[in-house]
Amino acid sequence: MYFFRKLRLLLLLVGGLGFFLLPVQPVCAQVFEDAWGLLLFKGQTAQSNLDDIGLINYTDSHDPSKALDLAYPNTDELVYGVEVARRISRKLWWFHYLEPYVTELEAALSINYRESQTKVINEIGPSVIFRWKNFRWDRYVKTTIGFAEGVSYASKIPDQERTKGRSSKHFMNLLTLDITLAPPQLPEAELSFRIHHRSAGYGLYGVRNTSSNILGVGLRYRWGTAL
Question: Which domains does the chain have, with CATH numbers?
């Protein structure tokens, strides 16, 4: 079983990289634009649930100065990740249905190295990123907001997903949220603030609801003729 798990991970990795890195194929030229992004980030896994991170706490405290509670308990797990993304063509026939709601779509592949005192986890996650751009304040700081939906494969189950009364699987749902900031003079160099959420997707993956959450910061560089 160990061999087949490794083989499945290897095939997923090779297939995902080939999907992005073979632009010579005609299908890639039709589906994608020449607009790329490479993100390097570092994060730390939180002990709290996603809805406990950086949310309003005014009901309990009744103190406006404490309404936004950004504090969260950390675990000892550090995460180092890389993500490569490529913009999906806006000329595809179905994109005009989404155009009123989202600025652009990206196909992404992330690879994370998660290390704690108890285990080392290799994680891979293909996803589709919905990104919003062109804000009013862009002349001061270029801003984008990205929300991704995909699949995560972890070589080992994170400790945070094995809490009392809950179980997890190697394949789980993947959600990410990132906010990027860049100087108008150098818009291709972005500072990214990122939440990485791996979960059961409310039972979609056949296990009880469980999750692990990573908060991180990184640098993304964009290039290509279609930028």
Answer: 2-223 (2.40.160.20)
- Cβ atoms of 78 and 115 closer than 8 Å: yes
Please write the tens of the pLDDT for every residue from 99-127. 899 999 999 999 999 998 889 999 999 99
Question: For the chain, how far is it from start to end, CA to CA, in angstroms?
Answer: 45
Contact present, 221 and 182 (Cβ < 8 Å):
no
Residues 6+ apart with CB under 8 A from 204: 173
- Write the single-letter amino acid at 119: K
DSSP 70-134: ----EEEEEEEEEEEEEEEPTTSTTHHHHTTT-SEEEEEEEEEEEE-SS-EEEEEEEEEEEEE--
DSSP readout, 12-30? Answer: HHHHHHHHHH-TTSHHHHH
pTM of the model: 0.79
